[in-house]
Specification:
The chain is of the alpha/beta class. Helices cover 41% and strands 16% of the residues. It is built from 16 helices and 17 strands.
Length: 461
């Protein structure tokens, strides 16, 4: 009995991402594939990133798998539901059992099951997928498989939760041989002058940010041994020669003991590849920054989310905004790039908080920053807090959580202009503090756009 592992992300259908052109492989599914290979379970991966739904359906038709396992998240849900309906309706695909997994599953069990999926994997997928496969093959009781959900006589049945995998050293490497790695490397190289690959070293996050989903790995901290991670880097360096690595972990420097071992191993194994990572400001200090730089780090993303301590506290971020600012400044001083994340429109945020965030970005001066407008993901503390204040709840099958709106300090349109205001005001400041390369025409364009966005904010209030 064979399994096709696939997902619902098509780069050509995403105008925003097609413009950015920074695709990464479905690493989670490649871990599942690697694990199934170790269990001698026949599986095939169809990575849709560079292909169309038509290509995907052709592949499934050719393979005639007994099981199609689809990864889904809040951004791919719409396409995944479309795929389910096609596989359920057309005999050409052999009517495979449809299994879904991913972060959007846990708090949307009934929705996905009533959309046509037979089984849902709740949480980590490797062991559950293997056991579910065996239960289907041997026609044994699915209720004995931990970490799944299914419908029985119209009711949602959840089996007992799966115990999280504690020893990550037993995980095989992700099955990168199953995907067109060359297409990813070429796309990055052609669009950005450098290629990039992803590596995962940990599962779970011990922190409690209210807007962040922990639906798959939970509020935990588990880490792969540092020597294994270094060995993976060495393999990637030898086999693919990527120009950079993106560590997908939530907080890369959460353990200073692990990071020290990682530093030692990558140097010992000649596994240094330039990399970027995400971390928290309070998990950085002078020593850790030096270790990161020596291990190959060239860019650190340091979470802030706001320049207003009031909003940071409301998010339960448990960090001081001045500590974040200092960490960014110290990293800049060590000739490593910095990045930070900003979220506007969080409950309780007002114009003063937004202006404070602008000043924070000017003072911290990160190399890069990204801005999103806060949206509630089902299952998070933020969603629970604002659920009674939801004013826009679009149809589940044809929308994403990003389209949910709730009562904020100002109207939703206000924050669209606020994003433009922040971006242009900070960019104006950057031009003006750089006398050697200052472009006054460019600077005044930024300022004009900032003033215009501020005017629209006033009107939209």
């Amino acid at each position: 009995m064979s399994v096709v592992l696939t997902h619902g992300y098509y780069l050509s259908n995403d105008p925003k991402e097609h413009k950015i052109m920074k695709p990464y492989p479905p690493l989670g599914q490649l871990y599942v594939s690697g694990y199934l290979n170790e269990q001698n379970i026949e599986n095939h991966v169809f990575d849709t990133t560079f292909y169309s739904k038509e290509d995907q359906l052709k592949f499934i038709k050719e393979k005639q798998p007994d099981i199609v396992a689809v990864y889904t998240n809040l951004m791919t849900k719409i396409e995944v539901v479309k795929l389910i309906k096609i596989l359920k309706a057309e005999a050409a695909y052999g009517f495979p059992k449809i299994v879904l997994g991913g972060p959007d599953i846990t708090y949307n069990l009934e929705n996905y099951l009533k959309s046509g999926a037979q089984y849902l994997i709740i949480g980590e997928g490797e062991e559950t997928m293997a056991e579910l496969h065996e239960a289907i093959v041997n026609k044994t009781d699915i209720k004995e498989v931990s970490g799944v959900a299914f419908l029985e006589e119209g009711a949602v049945i959840k089996t007992k939760p799966r115990v999280k995998m504690k020893d990550l050293s037993v995980l095989p490497l992700p099955n990168r041989a199953a995907i067109p790695v060359d297409k990813y490397l070429k796309t990055w190289k052609e669009n950005h002058g450098m290629s990039s690959m992803t590596v995962s070293t940990q599962r779970g996050c011990p922190y409690t940010c209210k807007w962040c989903s922990t639906a798959v790995y939970g509020q935990s901290y588990r880490r792969r041994p540092a020597d294994q991670v270094a060995a993976e880097l060495k393999m990637l360096k030898d086999d693919y020669s990527p120009d950079s690595i993106w560590f997908v972990d939530d907080v890369f420097t959460v353990s200073h003991k692990w990071l020290t071992a990682f530093h030692e191993e990558v140097l010992k194994q000649d596994a240094v590849i330039p990399f970027e990572c995400i971390t928290r400001a309070e998990r950085l200090n002078d020593k850790i920054l030096q270790l990161l730089k020596e291990a190959g780090c060239y860019r650190i993303w340091i979470g802030a989310e706001s320049g207003s301590q009031k909003i940071i506290d409301a998010m339960d971020r448990r960090v001081d905004v001045d500590v974040v600012k200092e960490a960014i400044q110290k990293t800049n001083a060590m000739d490593m790039e910095t990045g930070t994340f900003i979220m506007l429109g969080y409950p309780g945020e007002d114009l003063h908080d937004i202006n404070t965030t602008v000043q924070y970005l000017k003072d911290a001066n990160p190399t890069h920053f990204t801005i999103t407008i806060a949206y509630p993901i089902k299952g998070t503390s933020l969603y629970t807090e604002i659920e009674k204040d939801i004013i826009t709840q679009p149809d589940w099958e044809t929308s994403t959580d990003r389209q949910i709106d709730f009562k904020r300090t100002y109207k939703r349109r206000f924050y669209d202009y606020a994003v433009k205001k922040v971006v242009n005001e900070v960019n104006y400041h950057r031009e003006m503090i750089n006398p050697k390369n200052r472009n006054l025409t460019k600077a005044f364009k930024f300022k004009a756009k900032s003033i215009l966005a501020g005017g629209f904010m006033f009107v939209a209030k």
